[in-house]
């Protein structure tokens, strides 16, 4: 995996977390996957954990990073959310 793509993914994901300094990624995998329209998309999928702005641990959450678009989605547990749907359709 290119260090540049992973570095950009970390920054994009960290900005969505309450305390960006505490972000840890795991199970990180980069692959060309198909989106809901059947188009191939360069993605990085994995899990992220960290702390909220109040200092509470967030627990592990799935994430999806779209490399070309430089967009990150962190699943927050709400079913039907854009992040949850994107992760489920592209990473699974």
Task: Give a written overview of the molecule.
The chain contains 2 helices and 4 strands. A hairpin with a 5-residue loop joins strand 1 and strand 2. The radius of gyration is 13 Å and the shape is globular. The model has no long low-confidence stretch (mean pLDDT about 90). It has a 4-stranded antiparallel sheet, sandwiched between helices. It has about 90 residues and is of the alpha+beta class. The two termini are about 20 Å apart.
Topology overview:
Elements: H1 3-14, E1 19-34, E2 40-51, E3 61-66, E4 71-74, H2 82-91
Antiparallel strand pairs: 1-2, 2-3, 3-4
Strand order of the largest sheet: 1-2-3-4
Helix content: 10-25%
Backbone shape: globular
Sheet with most strands: 4 strands, antiparallel
Q: C-alpha Rg, in Å?
A: 13 Å
Average pLDDT figure = 88
Low-confidence runs of at least 5 consecutive residues:
none
Oligomer: single chain
Structure summary, number of beta strands: 4
First-last Cα distance? 19 Å
Order of helices and strands: HEEEEH
Q: What portion of the residues fall into strands of 2 or more residues?
A: 35-45%
Structural class: alpha+beta
Number of helices: 2
């Amino acid at each position: 995996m290119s260090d540049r793509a992973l570095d950009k993914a970390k920054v994009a994901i960290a900005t969505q977390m309450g305390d960006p300094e505490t972000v840890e990624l795991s199970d990180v995998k980069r692959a060309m996957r198909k989106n809901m329209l059947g188009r191939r998309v360069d993605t990085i999928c994995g899990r992220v954990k960290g702390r909220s702005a109040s200092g509470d641990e967030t627990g592990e959450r799935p994430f999806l990073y779209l490399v070309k678009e430089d967009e990150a989605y962190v699943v927050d547990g709400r079913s039907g959310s854009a992040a949850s749907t994107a992760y489920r359709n592209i990473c699974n």
